[in-house]
């Protein structure tokens, strides 16, 4: 287990000389299509600190894109995964099964919303989970169409590219895409033409109208939505939108799928973000935070839907790998023991208070939004026109990186600065990170 002093330390330029050397090797050996936010090469990670190969200690406001909520070297994850490594690394659950997989499925049944009978299937990546949710929904409904939303993100495989809304960088040049995917409006309050207060009901009415008129509700297998849209800009659908869509799905025999890959596992201060509006999905996809950094993903849902796919119809060589399952059990143990839902809510109140004070000084902050430790600011050239300002987001991120604070950007317009600290980050580091953001604004 890493044990790094929880203090920022900048001892070289960022990236430093050793990182720059590694970056040269990387550029020669690694495909150009695989990018990096900040080419600082990692040596060790512990709670809120990433230590690089030059000895710099960066404050982590990214968690490897909402993955290492319990930290990237959490004691229980390291202990359980190491013990599993000693026993066996793999058998393939489809060849000879093992208890860890079953335990993860039991934990998912306990933690996900709803008290109906639930079953799970495990996979390696978020995109794979989403693809399988579609397979299961199609098998159950014997229908084909899939409904997704503006600003939605669901992955980089062929079907999930089709489900993802943003062209650059995710889809450009990679088509043709899978058929029977239809995109409808989402209640993006900040940018809704008639105002945020109308966004929920109006967007729901438009979405439902488009589904019924353009697709036909009877043809729809699944409606897939992120309860907080992640890559699209940390958009919280305006109040009332999710319940209306969920009800429409129930009324029309459509499988309602909550993609909680980014928002799940304590990230928003609930086990799952859809709980905030009392939504009980038919299926829920999880990944990222589930296993403390080890690759694991799941589809969990109503037993009768999950059982619709024929025997042998679901699977994959590595799905539910035993080491990843052990890691997940360690991550879940940590979330419960440290009450990371409460920690996420504390992070929200610290961040929102500081960001609200900044917004008064810096009009570029058009909106502060998100929940728990999934917080973002949308940057605009002028709060009156709401013209997106991706250049400001890029400049602020760059300035933060130079000071040793890792932040990420996102958003359909590339103008959102997002903050996803590990839920185990200390209050001092959190405040120091916010100081750096404030100074970056002042220098902008
Ligand atoms: N669904 C809601 O957030 C992954 C993407 C990073 P995978 N988000 C990070 C990038 O640029 O590739 C994500 C998500 C939601 C699905 C996925 C896909 O999860 O594990 O990356 O396949």
Structure, described:
The protein has 444 residues and is of the alpha/beta class. It folds into 2 domains: 17-73 and 339-443, Aspartate Aminotransferase, domain 1, CATH 3.90.1150.10; 75-337, Aspartate Aminotransferase, domain 2 (3-Layer(aba) Sandwich). The chain has 13 helices and 15 strands. It has helices at residues 17-29, 63-66, 75-87, 99-111, 126-141, 158-163, 196-215, 241-251, 303-306, 322-337, 340-361, 390-402, 427-443, and strands spanning 42-46, 49-52, 57-60, 118-123, 145-149, 181-184, 220-225, 255-259, 283-286, 297-302, 365-371, 374-379, 405-406, 408-410, 416-419. The strands form 3 sheets. The chain has a 7-stranded mixed sheet, with helices on both faces. It has a 4-stranded mixed sheet with strand order 1-2-3-13. A 4-stranded antiparallel sheet has the order 11-12-15-14, with helices on one face. Helix 4 packs parallel to helix 10. Bound molecules: ligand PLZ. The site of ligand PLZ has 16 residues, from helix 5.
Primary descriptors:
single chain, 444 residues, alpha/beta, Aspartate Aminotransferase, domain 1, seven-stranded mixed beta sheet, 13 helices, 38% helix, binds ligand PLZ
Strand order of the largest sheet: 4-10-9-8-7-5-6
- The CATH class of the largest domain, by name, is Alpha Beta
Instruction: Please give the radius of gyration in angstroms.
Output: 21 Å
The helix content, as a percent range, equals: 25-40%
Low-confidence stretches: none
Note the main sheet.
Answer: 7 strands, mixed
Looking at CATH, the homologous superfamily of the largest domain is Type I PLP-dependent aspartate aminotransferase-like (Major domain)
Per CATH, what is the topology of the largest domain? Aspartate Aminotransferase, domain 2
Overall tally of domains: 2
Structural class: alpha/beta
Kindly state the number of beta strands.
15
Number of helices: 13
Q: What would CATH call the architecture of the largest domain?
A: 3-Layer(aba) Sandwich
Which term fits the overall shape?
globular
- Give the N-terminus to C-terminus distance in angstroms: 39 Å
Fraction in beta strands: 15-25%
* SSE sequence, one letter per element: HEEEHHHEHEHEHEHEEEHHHEEHEEEH
């Amino acid at each position: 287990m890493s044990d790094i002093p929880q203090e920022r330390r900048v001892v070289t330029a960022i990236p430093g000389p050793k990182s720059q050397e590694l970056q040269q090797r990387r550029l020669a050996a690694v495909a150009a299509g695989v990018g990096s936010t900040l080419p600082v090469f990692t040596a060790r990670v512990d709670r809120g600190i990433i230590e690089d190969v030059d000895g710099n200690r960066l404050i982590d406001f990214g968690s490897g894109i909402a993955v290492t909520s319990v930290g990237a070297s959490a004691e229980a994850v390291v202990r359980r995964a190491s013990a599993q490594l000693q026993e066996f690394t793999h058998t393939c659950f489809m060849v000879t099964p093992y208890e860890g997989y079953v335990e993860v499925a039991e934990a998912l049944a306990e933690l996900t919303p709803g008290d109906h009978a639930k079953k799970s299937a495990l996979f390696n990546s978020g995109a794979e989970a989403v693809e399988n949710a579609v397979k299961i929904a199609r098998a159950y409904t014997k229908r084909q169409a899939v409904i997704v939303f503006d600003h939605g993100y669901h992955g980089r495989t062929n079907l999930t590219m089709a489900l993802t809304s943003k062209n650059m960088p995710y889809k450009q040049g990679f088509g043709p895409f899978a058929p029977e995917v239809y995109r409808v409006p989402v209640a993006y309050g900040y940018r809704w033409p008639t105002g945020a207060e109308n966004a929920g009901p109006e967007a729901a009415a438009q979405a439902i109208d488009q589904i019924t008129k353009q697709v036909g509700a009877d043809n729809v297998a699944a409606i897939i939505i992120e309860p907080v849209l992640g890559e699209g800009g940390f958009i919280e659908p305006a109040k009332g939108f999710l319940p209306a869509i969920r009800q429409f799905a129930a009324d029309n025999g459509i499988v309602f799928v909550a993609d909680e890959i980014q928002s799940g596992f304590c990230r928003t201060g609930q086990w799952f973000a859809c709980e905030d509006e009392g939504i009980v999905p038919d299926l829920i996809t999880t990944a990222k935070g589930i296993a403390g950094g080890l690759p694991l993903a799941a589809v969990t849902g109503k037993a009768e839907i999950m059982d619709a796919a024929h025997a042998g119809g679901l699977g994959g060589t590595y799905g539910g790998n035993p080491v990843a399952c052990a890691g997940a059990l360690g991550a879940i143990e940590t979330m419960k023991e440290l009450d990371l839902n409460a920690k996420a809510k504390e992070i929200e109140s610290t961040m929102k208070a500081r960001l609200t004070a900044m917004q008064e000084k810096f009009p570029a902050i058009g909106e502060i939004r998100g929940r728990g430790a999934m917080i973002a600011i949308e940057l605009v050239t002028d709060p009156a026109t709401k013209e997106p300002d991706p250049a400001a987001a890029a400049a602020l991120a760059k300035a933060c990186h130079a000071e040793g604070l890792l932040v990420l950007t996102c958003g359909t317009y590339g103008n959102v600065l997002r903050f996803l600290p590990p839920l185990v980050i200390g209050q001092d580091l959190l405040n120091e990170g916010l100081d750096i953001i404030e100074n970056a604004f002042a220098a902008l």
